[in-house]
Amino acid sequence: MHIYKVGGAVRDRLLGRPVSDIDWLVVGASVEEMLAKGYRPVGADFPVFLHPKTGEEYALARTERKSGRGYGGFTFHASPDVTLEEDLIRRDLTINAMAEDEAGTVYDPYNGQQDLDQRLLRHVSPAFAEDPLRVLRVARFAARYAPLGFRVADETLELMRLISASGELQALTAERSWKEIERALMEAQPQVFFQVLRVCGALPELLPELDNDTQGLAALEQAALHEEALHVRWACLLHTLPPASIKAVNQRLKAPRECQELALLTGECLAKAGQAPELPATAVLELLQKFDVYRRPQRFEDFLIACEMTALGEGKSGYPQADYLRGAAAAARAVDVKPLVQAGLTGQALGEALKSERLKALEAYKLG
């Protein structure tokens, strides 16, 4: 029984990057032996165990065979006879197919260290083409390691093209696709993820609405540079699409509600926000109420940040409309409802009176 660190922990240590999660691989052990040592079984598809003291996951070495469509169409075989090399060859990229033993010795049967040095994302074996999810994973790694100069190897890109043309990407569930997209959006250069998908022909299959879009990627790049939140990045990416297309993308990928809301509102309101200083008070109030700035001020602030990122993506030096709209929102929120209630107004009459007072406040703000 031999235990190794595998995958990302080895890769990132060799790159000098922080190691957050460690994947452990057990070679030469049976299920019965793991149970006898106090490991607790988890995972229905293949033998994974929790360490009796640390709670970390330990997986038995295994081989796999394609048995159906999609990323889940595999049959796994785990036994004490499966070697380290046999386990590592089923992994996606050479830089993820390295192992390290307890003494710190690195096992690298597929030249992952060489590809680290050459800054290449290269597949381990032709079996790469059996799993469509790997197209998204490689694009995500390209986004993560773009600042270090990594690129996808030509032969791997060709396999990704074959997968994209095969129709296998359609077997991916919305949940799995979104999980990869979400992680990619939070990488250092998320625009690279979509650029790689476009080059290999996957973008027309997964996100055809974005296939010819460059402004969305430019805005997303700015949002990443400014370390904005996920839902802001998603809104930036989709901001050029018509509202109907934004709805379709959101529903197809089952994006989180916060992402859906901000993306749709940004698509609907970006143009009006850009004209805000010239708009009449009635139009500004309508914009503020659409965002419910009285109860959800942060959502409006997130929208303004998305607007700023789109402006920077277009090469502008700033977005002065944001400060104007922040002031307008503050003026509208400053209107006190108490005097109206004390005057005996209720229901619709109270709503109309409050709207009138807010309009006066916005007109005074505009003149000021």
From TrEMBL:
TM helices/strands, residue ranges: none
tRNA processing is among the record's keywords: yes
Binding-site positions, CTP: G8, R11, R91, R137, R140
UniProt binding sites for Mg(2+): D21, D23
Presence of the UniProt keyword Hydrolase in the record: yes
Cofactor requirements of the protein: Mg(2+)
InterPro entries: CCA_bact, NT_sf, PolA_pol_head_dom, PolyA_RNA-bd, tRNA_CCA-adding_enzyme
Residue positions binding ATP: G8, R11, R91, R137, R140
Additional information: A single active site specifically recognizes both ATP and CTP and is responsible for their addition.
Protein name: CCA-adding enzyme
Natural source organism: Pseudomonas inefficax
